[in-house]
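Notes from hallway chat w/ T.B., transcribed later so I don't forget. T.B. wanted the structure written out for a chain they're using in a teaching module, and asked if we could keep both sequence and structure tokens in one place. Agreed to drop them here.
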Amino acid sequence: MATPFFGKREMENSSPVMPSTNLRQTSPPTSVTTNPAMAQAVSAAALKEGGSKLTVGPNIKLKGVEITDCDTLVVEGLVEATMDSRVMQIAEQGAFKGSAEIDVAEIRGEFNGNLTVRQKLVIYSTGKVTGTIRYGKLVIEEGGQLAGEILFGASGTSSKGPALAQVNGMLKTG
């Protein structure tokens, strides 16, 4: 078994051991969607979860910071920040304002700002994403909202197709 300082730990049981200070481990959402694409996105994020994790709990406001060296950010309160991470999960009551570069983003609450998702952006039925959004893959559950400048490809170059005006659960081209 590798030490946590030189590589990823191998999981010996189904539940990871988390330090009891400064971090709170949250359980996965209890509602499961019947949409295979949504289930696959949740599974992919769960596999990537691990390493350093920051949870901003309900009624907590974290403003004016730069978040670094964080593998997973769970937002249940309000975060106004810039960050680069692997996984971002915004709960229904959570909100993120600012700039983020993420591998996988799961949005159940609100995101407002510049969002670059290198791999997969998942917007659930309660999610609302506004601003400048770049994504590799996009999954929107019925009722999810996406508005602003939407660009395909995390590199920042827009696709050659028609401009996306607004997305509210389905693509609308203009």
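Follow-up for T.B.: The chain has one domain: 36-173. Might be a good example for the class.
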